[in-house]
Design brief:
Length: 281
């Protein structure tokens, strides 16, 4: 746990407000505790995966470069069948509401021709397509080369960049500001603290001052709603880090973010994030 090949490494731990009293931090780990700091640890290729599990217990696992490679390979394989799978209408977890989520993201963006839109985890371009049809200038980002190949086949003129959103060093193609930042069915890969970290970076360095971030994904209003879906769909359930609206509000709103939530099915919905006024240098 948290051990690099050449010894123990340190972690930055964000916002210990989450950790309930009485939880013990593994004593053998060198831990740097930083309150109100949303940096995600990235030392010796290791990234904290969870700070506190959803029952409130402290738990630390890590995601290393190897597991990230495996995840990327899974998406590379999925690229071949992805459009077929999401093209089948369903009321089942996890894709119940997928089309409505795409449509709702598009509506909440209020796209105008010429608007610049950054699509995070573009996959095969199903969300980007709606913005291109509205005359927007879209830049798509994904870490899966095969997903990008599929998107390029479908939309040869679309600007695409390969990048892992969980790494702090993004390619220079991203060094600009966008009118809107969007994403669909991607952020459930990231722990809540990583979600906040990525959105804070985006809002600070990549979004115009009056911009907003619109995210469709698997999401539930509360943990009991997630647990019910997990029971009802136990045969197909996959444990990912699905958004919970109450815990998302609890993390974001005290930091000045406004969040509007639009459920589109029992397991999917759309968030419109309006960031606080960050110092934009
Ligand atoms: C379920 S697909 C969704 C694709 C598309 N947005 C849609 O709505 O159909 C998730 C996408 O996010 C990408 N992705 C996952 N983790 C990522 C990461 N850390 N950095 C960049 N892309 C990532 C995957 O490669 C995949 O293309």
């Amino acid at each position: 746990m948290g051990k690099s090949d050449d010894g123990y490494c340190g972690f930055w731990i964000a916002d210990l407000g989450f950790i309930k009293k009485g939880n013990e931090v593994a004593p053998e780990l060198l831990i740097f505790i930083v309150r109100n700091d949303t940096r995600v640890s990235k030392m010796a290729g290791i990234m904290i995966r969870w700070l506190v599990n959803r029952d409130g217990r402290f738990e630390m696992t890590y995601q290393d470069e190897h597991s990230q490679k495996e995840l990327r390979a899974d998406f590379d394989n999925w690229a071949q069948t992805y459009d077929q799978e999401v093209g089948i209408p369903t009321d089942d977890f996890p894709f119940a509401g997928y089309d409505r989520a795409l449509e709702t993201v598009w509506q909440k963006v209020e796209a105008d021709p010429g608007m610049s839109v950054l699509d995070l985890g573009i996959g095969t371009g199903n969300l980007a397509k709606l913005f291109m049809e509205s005359g927007c200038q879209v830049l798509g980002v994904d870490f899966s080369a095969e997903m990008l190949v599929k998107t390029r086949e479908k939309f040869p003129k679309l600007e695409l960049v390969q990048a892992d959103l969980t790494l702090d060093e993004w390619p220079t193609a991203l060094n600009r500001r966008f009118d809107r930042i969007v994403s669909n069915y991607t952020f459930h890969e990231f722990p809540l603290e990583t979600k906040l970290h990525i959105l804070t970076l985006l809002a600070t360095d990549h979004l115009h001052a009056d911009g907003r971030i619109v995210i469709g994904d698997v999401m539930f209003p509360t943990l009991p709603a997630l647990k019910k879906a997990k029971e009802d769909f136990s045969d197909v359930w996959d444990d990912e880090i699905y958004w919970l609206t109450d815990e998302t509000r609890a993390l974001f709103e005290p930091r000045g973010w406004a969040l509007a939530y639009f459920p589109v099915s029992f397991c999917a919905g759309v968030y419109v994030f309006t960031p606080p006024a960050f110092d934009t240098v």
